[in-house]
Design a protein that fits this description.
6-stranded mixed β-sheet; alpha+beta; globular
Length: about 230
């Protein structure tokens, strides 16, 4: 009996077995923490662009790109869409241009956002390949006859429903915002802005031209030259 009492006393006095600490709760992604769209840790993707002096060599339909600048997958005021898969973002090797072209796209996107606070971001499609060159059907979809020397970019018309997607038909286009977009690229010094024949979009006759297969996007081509800010 005495031995049993001693054993019971020792058992009750023993410290409880150590328990493993509970696993730490996983960190929430930036979007869940209230970060703005296109922001990462409070720093816009545009801030990470590797700027360098670019050269557009040859012609838009037979040329190359030296020192190309990659447009980010998305930014504070724009998103990119892959025209082949219809998904966002566009693949990195499809969104390279001269430093001047990237600068113009960012400037127009910023103007669009400032004029329409809270509006959907600008939707950008293909620019050029990292070193330019042929960008035909072998690279997916219909391909491009031009887009070879970093001076061309496709920008989708804003939609009436506000979605950041490619318009499936002309009736989905917000014509007022689309016309403003054409005008902004003209003011930015575009050499050409190609628009679809069914869009009804207009502009200076030697700059804004209608072209088949452009009823869901405009095609802007800038003149060669360095970016204005360094």
């Amino acid at each position: 009996m005495l031995r049993l009492i001693v054993l019971l006393t020792a058992t009750l006095a023993a410290p409880p077995a150590a328990t493993a600490p509970a696993p730490a709760a996983p960190a929430r992604p930036a979007a869940a923490q209230g970060a703005a769209p296109g922001m990462e840790h409070g720093r816009p993707p545009e801030a990470a662009i590797h700027w360098r002096r670019s050269l557009a060599l040859g012609r838009p339909n037979r040329g190359r790109l030296a020192g190309g600048v990659e447009l980010p997958a998305a930014g504070t005021q724009f998103v990119t869409v892959d025209p082949v898969t219809g998904t966002s973002p566009n693949r990195a090797w499809r969104r390279n241009g001269t430093d001047r072209l990237v600068e113009v796209l960012l400037a127009v996107a910023a103007e669009h956002a400032a004029a329409h606070p809270g509006a959907p971001r600008l939707v950008v499609g293909d620019l050029s390949r990292p070193r330019g060159g042929r960008f035909g059907p072998e690279y997916g979809g219909d391909g491009h006859r031009s887009h070879q020397n970093g001076l061309d970019a496709d920008v989708y018309y804003p939609r009436r429903d506000g979605l950041e997607r490619v318009p499936a038909r002309v009736a989905q286009i917000d014509r007022r915002l689309a016309q403003e977009l054409v005008d902004r690229f003209v003011r930015a010094g575009a050499e050409y802005v190609f628009v679809g024949p069914r869009t009804g979009l207009r502009g200076p006759g030697k700059v804004v031209l209608t072209l088949a297969n452009h009823d869901d996007h405009l095609h802007v081509r800038i003149r060669p030259g360095p970016r204005t800010r360094r």
